[in-house]
Amino acid sequence: MFTRNGVTKFAGTALVAGALGLAAFTTAGTAGAMSSADDNFLTDISSEGIAYDSETEAISIAYDVCFALDDGVDPVDLGMELLDATDLTTDQAATFVVSSVANFCPEHQPLFA
Predict the structure, then answer these.
(1) What gap in Å lies between CA 85 and CA 70, rounded to an integer?
(2) CA-wise closest residue to 10 among 85, 102, 105
(3) At a CB cut-off of 8 Å and minimum separation 6, what does 15 contact?
(4) C-alpha distances in Å from residue 71, one per residue of 60, 64, 67, 78, 83
(5) What does the pLDDT look like over 37-79, one tens digit per residue?
(6) How confident is residue 9, by pLDDT bands cut at 50, 70 and 90?
(7) What does the longest C-alpha to C-alpha distance in the chain come to?
(8) Distance between CA atoms of 64 and 83, rounded to whole angstroms?
(9) In the 8-state DSSP scheme, what is residue 62?
(10) Taking residues 17-43, what's their average pLDDT?
(11) Alpha-carbon distances, residue 76 vs 37, 55, 63 (angstroms)
(12) Which of 3, 19, 37, 61 is most buried per CB count within 10 Å?
């Protein structure tokens, strides 16, 4: 499921979701020519204490969240897989997922309402 999309490479920095009762965040961007969406995403996860080795890798994992949701993965199942694959707390995982959705695939925000 989701872990084959690179979550395990991101051990120590990932997600859970609004399905666990958290609200959405704002927008983000990417390394080099960072967009405001990338910047917002990185700010969101950093402010939650989520460390990452590479901005590009963190953003890539955020897109993996969107791809998993596009494929119909249940947000709670996605969050549980990410918790199992990383050392993130539930709050950190939720921040990662919710910020990923808010910044890179807002069409999925109704899943967290």
Answers:
(1) 20
(2) 85
(3) 61, 65, 78, 79, 82, 88, 92, 93, 94, 95, 96, 97, 98, 100
(4) 16, 10, 6, 11, 20
(5) 999 999 999 999 999 999 999 999 999 999 999 999 998 888 8
(6) very low
(7) 34
(8) 15
(9) H
(10) 58
(11) 24, 25, 17
(12) 61
